[in-house]
Design brief:
The protein is α/β, with parallel strands linked by helices. It has helices at residues 5-22, 72-75, 78-89, and strands at residues 49-53, 91-94, 98-101, 107-111, 116-119, 125-136, 142-153, 159-162, 167-171, 177-178. It has three helices and ten strands. Strands 1, 2, 3, 4, 5, 6, 7, 8, 9 and 10 form a ten-stranded mixed sheet that branches. The termini are far apart. Mean pLDDT is 75; it is low at 33-75. Keywords: Signal.
Length: 190
């Protein structure tokens, strides 16, 4: 026996009421492409990079490469701002001929005659006015030294910034940021 007409009408209306809200729910999946390398991709082989970093002085009135005009008063100096922020929270540590920092999570101001500084710890924030050389085998350290002659980094994810002009750089680690503008965009949280 066929279904009564009202029962078919109700069934049709119910199906339409469900279909209408779901009509806009469409998912389109793009064709799979080969994945593009990312900034955090780990290279299969690492080579030692050696050279002398001599960046040109930055013109504080220039807006080259920016998306808009930055007033000179607010342009700022990332090195000095980062140095000062770390300095606010730093504990003093006296430098000697050879200074080793093997602790983790230290916030330090190195004072005195810093010749050779070795950082094997992780997650340190270190500032100093000068050092002859810095060697980092630790990870995630942030170092700002006003005058630095040589830096060697074999660790991962370190940031080393300096003011001096001719600094000899060796980076055999991964994902390190080294240079006069290395503190650009680095958020310092305490």
């Amino acid at each position: 026996m066929p279904a009564p007409r009202t029962k078919r009408t109700v069934s049709t209306l119910a199906a339409l009421m469900l279909a209408i809200p779901l009509a806009g729910c469409v998912s389109i999946q793009p064709q799979e492409e080969s994945p593009a390398p990312t900034a955090s991709a780990v290279p299969t082989a690492t080579a030692s990079i050696q050279g002398t970093a001599t960046p040109l002085p930055k013109d504080p009135t220039s807006t080259e490469g920016s998306l808009g005009t930055v007033p000179k008063e607010t342009a700022g100096d990332s090195f000095q701002a980062g140095f000062d922020k770390i300095l606010e929270h730093a504990q003093k540590k006296k430098c000697s001929q050879d200074t080793d920092i093997s602790e983790d999570g230290q916030i330090l101001l190195l004072v005195g005659d810093c010749k050779d500084v070795a950082i094997t710890g992780t997650g340190n924030m270190i500032v100093a006015n000068n050092a002859r050389s810095v060697a980092i085998s630790g990870a995630g350290n942030i170092v700002a030294i006003k005058s630095l002659r040589q830096v060697e980094v074999s660790g991962v994810g370190n940031v080393v910034a300096w003011r001096s002009g001719d600094t000899h750089v060796t980076d055999s680690g991964q994902s390190n940021s080294l240079g006069r503008n290395a503190l650009d965009g680095v958020e310092l949280a305490f």
